[in-house]
Amino acid sequence: MSDRFAVTATDGAARAGVLRTVHGDVPTPAFMPVGTKATVKTVDPDELRALGTTILLGNTYHLHFRPGEDLIAELGGLHSFMGWDGPILTDSGGFQVFSLRDTITAVDDDGVTFRSVYDGAPARFTPESVAECQAKLGSDIAMCLDICPPVDIDRAELAEAVRRTTLWATRQRAAPRADGQLLFGIAQGASDPELRRRSIAELSELGFDGYALGGLAIGEHRGVMFETTAWGADLLPSERPRYFMGIGDPEGVLEVIERGVDMFDCVLPTRTARTGSALTWEGRLNLRNAGFARDPRPLDEDCSCPVCARFTRAYIRHLINQQELLGLRLLSLHNLRFLLELTANARAAIEQGRLAAFKAEALGRLAAAVV
User: Fold this and answer.
1) Which of 216, 249, 266 is the last residue of a domain?
2) Looking at 146, 209, 265, 300, which residue is catalytic?
3) What is the CATH number of the domain that holds 221?
4) Are residues 64 and 158 both part of a single domain?
5) Which of 61, 118, 122, 244 is the most buried (most CB within 10 A)?
């Protein structure tokens, strides 16, 4: 147990806990809605609170370029800027840089040079510069700069990514940060047992406030991803929070929780909403389909969100097909609530010692869905 994180219940490898931050406590497991550009698309902070959100994610890469961390700091920091008084985690920007590989012009032990996705201007990230950026943003949790290689990389390049990730984490560990700001290290190594174990061991020795399993959910087979998560999470320090970066489908959420993950994020609920689709216990509903034109039911009859309490599938289909912004908002609200409630119910199941039964029932409902 640390003074910032406590495990309060276990059920197999799964954990329920509490992460303490400057801006409040976060019950775990916790799903973090993604506020890439200081906003969760179409949803305001009061609505996020009402849905059950306890922590948000902000994107350092995009905020660095637009509007810039100096402007945000001048206006009181990211919390004040976006009107959210709860905890915020900021990523380092490393994933964006390395996923936009065509923009990279140089990678060396000091950092990475690339072209901005906005205007092509040259830019450079180092462990120290992303630490300074996140300190100015004033997030509760800052992530270390890492190298997230593509899934098809050869082993020599993967080993080099692990080496540099540790080197950069060591330097960022020593860099100044905002008062009370927690720092999480990111383990790389893909599904390679030796390299992943090496990365976890090297980062664990540095003594971070939390640890992430990076370099997964980027195109590898899901069975391999979940297997790596299981043994990888078990190797992380048990007294620190464990963060799986980038998963948000209902099945995936339950699988990583069962394997001992405490935190996770994904754009899936709002991105799915922008395609006109809803996450439900009947599966994913495409509201553009003509079959919903006269459907008087809510999106999900078991959902407690304000959308399902008031609006019909027929109405939301009308909004989506007429490209009315309210349709995207309503689907975003519902999809976020669906994942937040699923996560909260999984936490309750861990506390009751019945996660396996809860997961089996949930997956059974989803598998039986006929849309």
Assistant:
1) 266
2) 265
3) 3.20.20.105
4) yes
5) 244
Contacts with 15 (C-beta within 8 Å, 6 or more apart), sequence order:
7, 9, 28, 29, 260, 262, 350
Is 140 an active-site residue? no
286 shares a domain with 175? no
The pLDDT, as a whole number, for residue 304 is: 93
For residue 242, what are the β-bridge partners?
A: 211
Residues 186 and 286 in one domain: no
pLDDT category at 75 given cuts 50, 70, 90 is very high
Same domain, 31 and 173: yes
User: Domains in the chain: how many in total?
Assistant: 2
Task: Name the active-site residue from 91, 140, 249, 262.
Answer: 91
The percent of residues above 70 in pLDDT, for the chain, comes to: 99
Report DSSP letters for 135-203, one per residue.
HHHT-SEEEPP-----TT--HHHHHHHHHHHHHHHHHHHHS---TT-EEEEEE--TT-HHHHHHHHHHH
Domain that holds residue 328: 273-367
What torsion do the CA atoms of 57, 62, 67, 69 make, to the nearest 10 degrees? 70
- Is 91 annotated as catalytic? yes
User: Which residues are within 8 A (CB) of 147 and not within 5 positions of it... i.e. 6 or more apart?
Assistant: 94, 98, 107, 112, 161, 164, 165, 168, 188
Using pLDDT thresholds of 50, 70 and 90, give the confidence band for residue 369: confident
